[in-house]
Design goal:
It comes from Naumannella halotolerans. This protein has 16 helices and 20 strands. The termini are far apart. It is of the alpha+beta class. The protein has helices at residues 14-26, 76-97, 120-134, 148-154, 181-194, 244-251, 274-277, 331-335, 341-350, 352-363, 366-376, 430-441, 446-456, 461-466, 468-482, 498-502; strands spanning 4-10, 32-35, 108-110, 113-118, 143-145, 168-173, 177-179, 198-200, 203-210, 216-222, 228-238, 260-271, 283-285, 299-305, 308-318, 386-389, 393-397, 403-404, 407-411, 417-422. Helix 1 (14-26) runs parallel beside helix 5 (181-194), helix 1 (14-26) crosses helix 12 and helix 2 (76-97) packs across helix 12 (430-441). The chain has a single domain, classed as FAD/NAD(P)-binding domain (3-Layer(bba) Sandwich).
């Protein structure tokens, strides 16, 4: 372990792995150190069974496309998430082509993305969503159907033994993917250490203090031996999952004042039975229950982990005061400070429906939970499925008392320390988020770094939106490098027709 470094990255997940890789791209001579409190990287949020592994591109996630009071569908969030994922895909493709990553099949698989709903009102909503999204160049080729026979060809389990009189509808995109972010993290950090990066496992950060010379002194401890040491760093990134909040609080930066965290755990059902898995090759997202948080959107997912294909269904919400799956029962209480107490109380009062939902989930019987699966897959048998405990998510409570379901970057005014709070769709948007970190924290170096970064990610999100032909070319080229299905080659619509306008699609 080095005691004086240019950059110290706390946490061995996908975010730190991505930032470490980017820093080595632009400053190959820097001393960069990554520390991880566990004995293996990617054991918390980046672990494949601790997250949904979707490769969030908003092709199927209905929580990114809410229906407004006038019946129209707001696609702004979906477009933003898709744009960010395309930047991440460019970065991965660059690393594959440059030999920094091995065969992409080691971490990413082509997997269709579907949205699936039932009930007349929901069918109409999905029709409007499809009309709005398919008009956008990043969603070209997305199909819609309310015909059970067509849906059955896309995903046979969804229609097996279903009431033929029940209205159903689905969208289908062959351009989706399944990402093993745990394996990707391992591969990135393997390449990082091969290029003289320093990775230290089993070592946790205890405290942070700003030194008179502008560096940070970080007190760390080896969890096996108990031995403590101080690492001095010119730049610190706190990517420690749920523990980021506490570490930023200990750093004492003004920017973290008022922020709190609300931990949410979860469970999934999983099966690896060949006769079941072979009949479903897709990630299928439905609509969240009334009052449920966005991250509780039910989905029946194909997952490929360590070469083995499984199906997982969930999530079922749970609760624990831990901020990490391997954390302490005192985590939540230790994070409560005088400056964030009022925002946390405000969030509790304004989100009573969430509290009610969590209580119902905690009291829900295994039989009731399995009934949720049977709304997707009517023939499911309890004996075929096992329970999997997912990772912890610490949702961001902002100083204004708003509960945020997303990723929040907290940057000190001088750029010497930055931390990441929140959750989904973080992993899929790691590259653009880390680009923002580099730009905001290293404004003096950013102009010199841009040319190198441009080679890795030549097309920004804004360019892809403005130029449909470029968007199609970029999606096609990255799909070819990563072994994914390229988008359908077609002229994107120049506008929406009268039928879509009548349906309330915003233009």
């Amino acid at each position: 372990m080095q005691t004086d470094v240019d950059a110290l990255l706390i946490g061995g997940g996908i975010m730190s792995a991505t930032l470490a890789t980017l820093l080595q791209e632009v400053e190959p001579n820097w001393d960069i150190q990554v520390i991880e409190r566990l004995d293996k990287v990617a054991e918390e949020s980046s672990d494949p069974w601790n997250n949904a592994g979707t490769g969030h591109s908003a092709l199927c996630e209905l929580n990114y496309t809410p229906q407004k009071s006038d019946g129209s569908v707001d696609i702004a969030k979906a477009v933003t998430v898709n744009e960010q994922f395309q930047v991440t895909r460019q970065f991965w493709a660059h690393l594959v082509e440059s030999g920094r990553l091995p065969s992409p099949q080691a971490f990413i698989q082509p997997t269709p993305h579907m949205s699936f709903v039932w009930g007349a009102d929901n069918v109409e909503y999905l029709r409007r969503r499809h009309a709005a999204l398919s008009a956008h160049p990043l969603f070209a080729g997305m199909e819609f159907s309310d015909d059970p026979e067509v849906i059955g060809r896309w995903a046979p389990l969804l229609v097996a033994d279903r009431d033929p009189n029940q209205p159903i509808a689905a969208t289908y995109s062959a351009a989706g993917s399944d990402v093993d972010f745990g394996r990707l993290t391992e591969l990135l950090l393997d390449a990082f250490t091969e290029r003289s990066g320093n990775l230290v496992l089993g070592t946790e950060a205890l405290d942070l203090r700003k030194l008179p010379d502008g560096r940070w002194a970080v007190l760390v401890r080896n969890r096996a031996s108990g031995e403590k040491a101080v690492i001095r760093a010119r730049f610190v990134f706190v990517g420690a999952g749920g523990y980021s909040l506490r570490l930023l609080q200990k750093a004492g930066i003004d920017e973290i004042r008022g922020y709190g965290g609300f931990p949410v755990s979860g469970e999934f059902l999983r099966t690896s039975r060949t006769d079941v898995v072979s009949r479903h090759h897709a990630k299928v997202y439905g609509l969240a229950a009334v009052g449920a948080p966005p991250m509780s959107v039910p989905h029946l997912d194909t997952r490929v982990v360590e070469g083995r294909t499984s199906l997982m269904f969930g999530p079922y919400a749970g609760w624990t005061p831990r901020f990490l799956k391997t954390g302490s029962l005192t985590d939540l209480f230790a994070s409560i400070k005088p400056d964030n107490l009022l925002p946390m109380i405000k969030v509790g009062l304004q989100n009573l429906s969430l509290v009610v939902y969590l209580v119902k989930q905690l009291l829900s019987s295994p039989k009731r939970k399995f009934a949720d699966l049977r709304e997707f897959y009517a023939d499911a048998e309890p004996g075929d499925w096992e329970k999997v405990t997912a990772g912890q998510r610490v949702q961001v409570i902002r100083p204004d008392g708003v509960l945020q379901f997303g990723t929040e970057v907290i940057t000190a005014a001088d750029g010497s320390i930055v931390g990441l709070l929140g959750a989904s769709p973080g992993a899929s948007t790691a590259a653009p988020i880390m680009l923002d970190v580099l730009r905001d924290c290293f404004a003096d170096r950013w102009p010199d770094w841009q040319q190198t970064l441009f080679k890795a990610m030549p097309h920004s999100a804004e360019e892809l939106i403005a130029d449909p032909e470029l968007a199609h070319a970029v999606l096609t080229s990255t799909a070819e490098v990563l072994g994914l299905v390229p988008p359908v080659a077609k002229e994107p619509p120049t506008g929406l027709g009268e039928a879509e306008r009548a349906a309330g699609v915003p233009v």
